[in-house]
Every structure is written in structure tokens, then in C-alpha cells.
Design brief:
7 strands; 46% helix; globular
Length: 282
């Protein structure tokens, strides 16, 4: 069992990781939003987000799917939380630029939310649950704040073999650092690689009619390995964190190896990614 000290240290690490790549999320926002749109739309569909609803979006990052949810609910309301203020600041800018006024962004720990019971019609969590030390705590609270019959939808990445866009550079960097891959289920990008684990934790939190399905997205489509690795390092916090641990004299060689390994015969880098999208009902 993970100790409180371990959980605190992990949260501090994750905060530093995602704060560091927040500028990349701002820089690449338009492309990233378009790439992950299938996941966002499926989340909102499975959560049953509709007109007049009150929605809680946990770990909203730069405003996805909070802003699309706000557009759906119209005269409803969306509360979006994240623990990285730099992400939230950009989310607020995006909402203001789109004239979306029925969404509010709050800095909060996804495992320590404080909202009244039965105050939301839907809850969404996109690409955040897998980084939490105790994801059950987050889902249990989500269950509490949902109204009876309310729905939750959660997106987590499938396994590393289905997401080479991230796992390939992580594997090369770990080898150079002489760092073994984390045990299955450890907090991180692939914590819920096992679909049954995601379904199980939702059931344990009290949700019924739980089911998870795969959603495929084209995560990398670049003309060169250099473009691919720049994109990945500027967006994927775990990749950026590992790469930063390399001695400066090794970074150039590792970067070159990753770029060459990822590129096809024509020099292009094309990788699909797979995410689980799971839903349940209170």
C-alpha cells in the first residue's frame, strides 16, 4: 500500500511535470484539440451531457472537455478543475475567446474535491485519473457529487504496445537511465492499460452498468522524426520528465536514436494511439 508520504511526493512530481509542459499545451493547442476530439466527443456522449446540465470536469487541463461541454449544456453550467494553474489560465483564455461564459475553472486536487453531494448531472475525467496515487478516492467523490441516475465518463490510455507514440521514447530513455519500467498499475501514463482494472475501480466506487471501449486517435503524423520528438517532448509530461533526467552529453544521442527509430522508410512518423473510454451510472 502506498504511504501518505509517497502519495504526496508523487503529486508534487506530477505537478512539476505538467507545469513544465504547460507552455507546450498552449503552443500546440489547436492541433491537440483536433487530434483528441474523438475522445472528447465520446466522453460527452457517454456521460449524457445535454441541455441544462450541471457538469463537473476533473483534471481539465487546458479546457478539454470542459469547454465543449459548456457549449452543449448552453444554459447549464460546467465546473472544471485541475491542479496546474498554468493550464487553467490558458483554459480561461480559450473560454473567453470563444465567448463561453457558463464554465468556471478552479484549481483543485482531483482526489480532494469539495462539492455538495448530488450537485452534478455528469462527471468527466479525460487523461487525468491514471496519474492519481489513489484514483478510487477521486471516483468515490465523483459518485457522491452525482445526482441519482447521473453518469460518469473517464478516458485513460490503453497499453504501451498500443501507444508507441509515447512508449517508444520512454523505453529508449529508460534504457539509458538504467531505469526499469514501472510495475503494472503504477500511477502514470499506462496505469489503466488493463481495461478490466479501469472497469473494476469504477464499480468499486459505486457505479453500475460500467463498460469500457477503445477509441483510436492519430497521435503522430509528421514528416520527420525531429518534428515528432519535438511534439511529443513538449506535450507528454512523462516523456519530458524522463528526458530531462539524462545527462546533457547523452541527450543529443538519445534524441537522434528516438527520431530514427520512430521514422518509417520514407522518413515520416505516423502513430495511432488507443484510449479506453469507460462510463458508469450512479
Amino acid at each position: 500500500m502506498q504511504t501518505q508520504v509517497d502519495a504526496t511526493a508523487l503529486k508534487q512530481r506530477e505537478h512539476s511535470t505538467w507545469t513544465a509542459v504547460a507552455p507546450g499545451w498552449r503552443k500546440h493547442d489547436e492541433r491537440l484539440t483536433q487530434i483528441t476530439k474523438p475522445v472528447t466527443e465520446r466522453l460527452l456522449d457517454l456521460a449524457g451531457v445535454g441541455l441544462g446540465h450541471h457538469v463537473l470536469d476533473i483534471a481539465c487541463g487546458t479546457g478539454e472537455p470542459a469547454i465543449p461541454a459548456a457549449l452543449r449544456v448552453r444554459d447549464g453550467h460546467v465546473v472544471a478543475t485541475d491542479f496546474v494553474e498554468e493550464m487553467l489560465a490558458f483554459a480561461r483564455e480559450k473560454a473567453a475567446a470563444k465567448g463561453v461564459r457558463n464554465v468556471e475553472f478552479r484549481r483543485a486536487d482531483g482526489e480532494g474535491l469539495s462539492f455538495p453531494d448530488a450537485s452534478f448531472d455528469a462527471v468527466t475525467v479525460r487523461f487525468g485519473l491514471m496519474f492519481m496515487p489513489t484514483p478510487l478516492a477521486c471516483l468515490t467523490k465523483a459518485h457522491q457529487v452525482l445526482r441519482p441516475g447521473g453518469r460518469i465518463a473517464v478516458a485513460c490510455w490503453a497499453g504501451p504496445e498500443e501507444n508507441l507514440w509515447a512508449s517508444l521514447p520512454m523505453r529508449v530513455i529508460r534504457r539509458e537511465l538504467e531505469m526499469p519500467a514501472p510495475p503494472p498499475g503504477s500511477p502514470g501514463l499506462f496505469a489503466f492499460a488493463d481495461r478490466s482494472r479501469l472497469e473494476s475501480v469504477l464499480k468499486e466506487a459505486g457505479f453500475r452498468n460500467v463498460v469500457a471501449e477503445p477509441v483510436k486517435v492519430r497521435m503522430s503524423d509528421f514528416d520527420s522524426g525531429a518534428e515528432y520528438f519535438t511534439w511529443t517532448r513538449e506535450l507528454a509530461g512523462p516523456v519530458a520528465t524522463l528526458f530531462a533526467q539524462l545527462p546533457p552529453q547523452k541527450q543529443t544521442a538519445v534524441k537522434s536514436e528516438i527520431e530514427k527509430s520512430a521514422a518509417g522508410a520514407d522518413g515520416r512518423v505516423v502513430y495511432d494511439g488507443v484510449t479506453w473510454v469507460a462510463c458508469g451510472v450512479k
